[in-house]
Amino acid sequence: xxxxxxxxxxxxxxxxxxxxxxxxxxxxxxxxxxxxxxxxxxxxxxxxxxxxxxxxxxxxxxxxxxxxxxxxxxxxxxxxxxxxxxxxxxxxxxxxxxxxxxxxxxxxxxxxxxxxxxxxxxxxxxxxxxxxxxxxxxxxxxxxxxxxxxxxxxxxxxxxxxxxxxxxxxxxxxxxxxxxxxxx
Length: 184
Fold this sequence. Notes:
35% of the residues lie in helices and 27% in strands. The protein has a single domain, classed as Maf protein.
């Protein structure tokens, strides 16, 4: 079975990818700090990262990079692709404060997985719809305590349920389908 490198410092993401790609590819973590493109477009950011990481590897092993964000409709999509920076500088409590007075607290987590084998770059998108709520739950990470899906925040969900619903999981499932089609 051939190998695929997931460019991330998060071993949990690697485990999640391995579960979706089981039988298709062996997934290894590549801890490489690529220069993140500043853009409003998740696909452009992930594509740039995948290309750069692939060029830095010493062989022809394909790589994937993901980029994700929380898009709040009532805040015109903010924080979007800047979600990690906003979380680090403002914190999720301040983001909730911004959203709490909105008439429209609809939000979506979105993710793009970019794949490259050096010759081609393909992107795969996943999203999950929800609502911004006051922080609840002790699990997950990032914005999970303030993102509610079907009455439960991601921080209140067991990891396996969250991964089955998640934006990253949906992008990885689409990617797995694409890989399976190529293998046939």
